[in-house]
Amino acid sequence: MHWNSLGEFFAMGGYAFYVWTSFGLTAVLVAWEVLGLRARRNQAWRDLQQARLMDQTDLGEAR
Amino acid sequence: MNGAWIAVVRRDMLLALRRRSDVATTLFFFVIVASLFPLGVSPEPALLRTLAPGVLWVAALLACMLSLTRLFAVDYADGTLEQMVLAPQSLTLLVLGKVFAHWLVSGLPVVLLAPVLGLQYAMPNDALLVLVWSLLLGTPALSLIGAIGAALTLGVRGSGLLVALLVLPLYVPVLIFGSGAVAASQSGLDAGAYLSLLGACSLLALALTPWATAAALRIAVE
Amino acid sequence: MKIMTGINWFKYSSPPAFYPLAGLLIPWFYTLATVFAAVGLYISFAVAPTDFQQGEAYRIIFVHVPAAWMSMFLYLVMATWAGFGLALNARLSHMMSQALAPTGAMFTLLALVTGSLWGRPMWGAWWVWDARLTSELILLFLYIGFIALQASIDDPRRADRASSLLALVGAVNVPIIYFSVKWWNTLHQGASISMTSAPKMAITMLTGMLMLALAFWMYSIAVALVRVRCIILERERRADWVRQLVEVKF
Amino acid sequence: MLSAQDLACTRGDRLLFTGINFELRAGQLLYVLGENGSGKSSLLRILCGLRSPEQGQVSWQGEDIRRQSDAYRSDLIYIGHLNALKDDLSALENLSISCSVLGQNDGAVRARAALQGLGLARCADIAVRNLSQGQKRRVALANLWLSRARVWILDEPFSALDTAAIVLLASRIGEHLAAGGMAVLTTHQEVVIAAVTVQELRLT
Fold first, then answer.
1. CA triple D32-D35-D38, angle to 5 deg
2. Pairwise CB contact (< 8 Å): A30 & C219
3. Edge-to-edge strands, sheet with D182-186
4. CB-based contact (8 Å) between B84 and chain D?
5. Which residue of B has its CA nearest to D86?
6. Which of B165, B201, B212 is nearest residue C144 as measured by Cβ atoms?
7. Chains contacting C with at least 3 CB pairs below 8 Å?
8. What angle do CA D6, D11, D12 make, to 5 degrees?
């Protein structure tokens, strides 16, 4: 390990902005995609659940 | 077999002659876009000369792309496309006929008009010749590749813009070799390599794209 | 027309079998991704030495290069799935190619942004018309074209096959585009400013990049599986096996 | 012989029909009946190979139509809701060009005779744009007088026709069936057509 202090690590030899933006952006995009997918999954389940309720009412009426 | 091919070309040419405005719009668009740049940049000949290859080629490319939506859309709407899909002749061959007719209507006029615009851009004579050659070799590839985009977006809402989005990335090699040829001849280099690569692009497109367009048409007609 | 609810909806052979299988695999790929990422990051920050020329800024390649590899790799995988889908008329393959597209587009965007973030300190310009960066940009347009076409066609069947055909056409054109852009780049500017002058590939750097590339790959598989499960739920709403799933869940 | 085995079709994610089986031999007529939206047109499009079914297959002379690319299509003529006519061209031009696209090159002469038969002699040379809806439909149906196809798949051929034209078309279909041809029709009007056997297929 050739960082001798945390501060130096974050300074990244003066290129902190560029390095941390790159890695930060990677993390942000990954998180955004994973969370987006989780929301999409929940939405899909809600739609299915709603469709099921509607079918039941149809069946109810048809009987 | 080629009776059908000629019939398709004849029908499209008849339609194009009966409705000259379509041919005219492609040409006017080409002229207008090419004349905007001197206004936008500067009338200074030396600068225009360096701009000319890129501007004229991009204008030609956009003009060809604009007329792509018309390639199959009218046939799709009036049912002629269905009959073509059901014709005993191979759909790939009929697609070639359609694309050839489209090239005659939108590609060839651009090739013939380009030298006139070239003069507007103070281009030397041998560069004008290379410009015509490059457009002659390049525009078939534009029509062939563009036909795939037109077939994929048939009957889709917003298809005009969508065709551009699908087709422009595929036009990049043709644009690079085309405008490169003219730029090379202007700076005294030999444009042979570019023109042969451009011809290769067109031949490759001729070999591969009709099959893809026919497949896209079958998907659209379903 | 009355909706036939009672009868057994005809058998979808693959989605019902694939859905639970994908569910099992996803956690594994997520963990693999995190493990590789941890190792990769450790190498890129702790093990890799400071470059005498570029100082610390070169560490950006630990994200930029794997992202570029993945953007290209995912497009080819997408085109392969599309090819299977068209050849075997299998809906699931089309769904797989659609599930990969957004992730591929994300990696392309990431490659572009990290490329310019690396270019700024090194060559003083946010955007360098370097052959690889330009080709990445065009690859991004191909991804956007694929996603736009798939989204703008209403009938799912036609959307599948049209976008798959576009993916195939795109895949055939990618090498030609890369070649023509490289040809264009070397002629106009020569190799004065080019990303290829990255620091020579020390072993540690290569392993760092490979680790992160593997991490990105595992991550892509996991995300694609999650997304394909979402697509299956959205598209097979009426299928009987989906109804049982809903019964079980609620 | 045209046959369908266990055909099924969906639109979006809705099931239109399933388990459709029939066999059609020379001289036979098949009526496809059902309310609007029951999938009649989709079934016809599947039969002529424009659309691939969700399940099952259509076979001509015992072989799946998807495998024999042009043999089936040279024996088939399909007239759907769309007239397949170019508005800028005249009726004669439309017919002769569509004949040569299908590979018969003596189109022009026979087209004029067909148009005369349908009472369209005087408007054969004016642009189709100026014709009435009924006249356009008759020009589209004129293809039946020109075609040598054995299988006719017609989607509501009698719509937009006046009584005289309906009688004319019915007799033409009768001739075709008598000569050993086959036809699949959808229609909402009751029309008497002389045929060896009439099959009916009702789509619920």
1. 75
2. yes
3. D76-79, D151-155, D182-186, D28-33, D197-202
4. yes
5. B78
6. B165
7. A, B, D
8. 130
Domain ranges within chain C, ordered by starting residue: 24-249
What is d(CA B206, CA B144) in angstroms, rounded to the nearest whole number? 7
**What does the pLDDT look like over C30-40, one tens digit per residue?**
999 999 999 99
Residue at C194: amino acid letter: S
Q: What are phi and psi of D151, to 5 degrees?
A: -105, 125
Q: Which of B163-167, B196-200, D117-121 has the lowest mean pLDDT?
A: D117-121
CA distances from C36 to A4, C67, C77, C218 (A): 25, 14, 21, 9
Q: Which of C204, B1, B28, B219 is nearest to D105 (CA)?
A: B1
Do D and B make contact via 3 or more CB pairs under 8 A? The reply is yes
Task: Give the tens place of pLDDT for each residue, B104-161.
Answer: 999 999 999 999 999 989 899 899 999 999 999 999 999 999 999 999 999 888 888 9
Q: At CA D174, angle to CA D170 and CA D175, rounded to 5?
A: 120
Q: Name the β-bridge partners of D198.
A: D29
Measured CA to CA, the distance from residue B38 to residue B41 in angstroms comes to: 5
Predicted structure pTM score: 0.89
Enter the tokens of residue B68.
């792509």
CA atoms of D158 and D174, how far apart (whole Å): 14
Tokens 């799935």 correspond to C81
Which value does ipTM take for this structure? Answer: 0.88
Task: Name every chain B residue with its beta carbon within 8 A of the beta carbon of C169.
Answer: 148, 170, 209, 212
* Interior/surface letters B189-221, b for 16+ CB within 10 angstroms, e for the rest: eebeebbebbbebbebbeebbbebbbbbbbbbb
Question: Hey, of D13, D42, D46, which one would you mutate to test binding to chain C, going by the most C CBs within 10 A of its CB?
Answer: D13
Q: Is B80 in contact with D80 (Cβ distance < 8 A)?
A: no
DSSP conformation class of B99? H
Instruction: Find all residues with CB under 8 Å of C3, minimum gap 6, and list them.
Output: A58, D14
Strand partners, D185: D31, D154
- Least CB-CB distance to D13: which of C1, C89, C237? C237
Rounded average pLDDT over A33-62: 84
Where along chain D do its domains lie?
A: 86-148
Q: Which amino acid is at B12?
A: D
Q: Are C212 and C42 in contact (CB under 8 A)?
A: no
